[in-house]
């Protein structure tokens, strides 16, 4: 069940939001007060192209600031998206509701105490790669993404500043079948872009690659893992629950309705 505003751990939310920005960096980041305007012309990721408010009390001139941000998105040829987290000022949510905006794609942020989970030690089954090009090719193939996104995705991955493990599971005959990206930011490790190829699901590959990434991060000193998964992705939520991940908070996106 989603947590209520009264039982959110806002310091944890702030910290996970900050490491999330570093783990998936936008090309352009501008601030309007505590609002972060994130834009990445070459990549369509919603996390890279949205407005995120980082202080629940920063609600001055909301309408003016929202319109100003919308013009920046328009200049990039994109419709404005607002990412709602527990840090979003309630007046901003109220304004979007009143103006007919649509709330969509709820995402669950999960965390795991790596100091208590029983992960097999010994040698790593899958060592991370440092070859960005190889990883990007595998990521696009496994996700079924447009190959034309390769330069933009390579730019995002190359821009990640904290230590990063690029994990790929390959089949000798079929090529890449699973991918994951693990970003270690001090004692926190973020699992990003985890996917198993559609024709290879339900075979334990997701558990295999996430376990390898978590083991790598823990060996490097990470104490807590985090990841984000769309709330209606039941198979992924079941996998993460099996590992011991628990919900920290949720976020969702808002877009202008067709009548606005």
Automatic annotation (TrEMBL):
SUPFAM superfamilies: Acyl-CoA N-acyltransferases (Nat)
Protein name: N-acetyltransferase domain-containing protein
Residues of the N-acetyltransferase domain: 117-260
Keywords assigned by UniProt, alphabetized: Acyltransferase, Transferase
Top-level division of the source organism's lineage: Bacteria
Record has Transferase as a keyword: yes
GO MF annotation list: acyltransferase activity, transferring groups other than amino-acyl groups
Classification of source organism: Bacteria, Pseudomonadati, Pseudomonadota, Alphaproteobacteria, Hyphomicrobiales
Organism: Ciceribacter selenitireducens ATCC BAA-1503
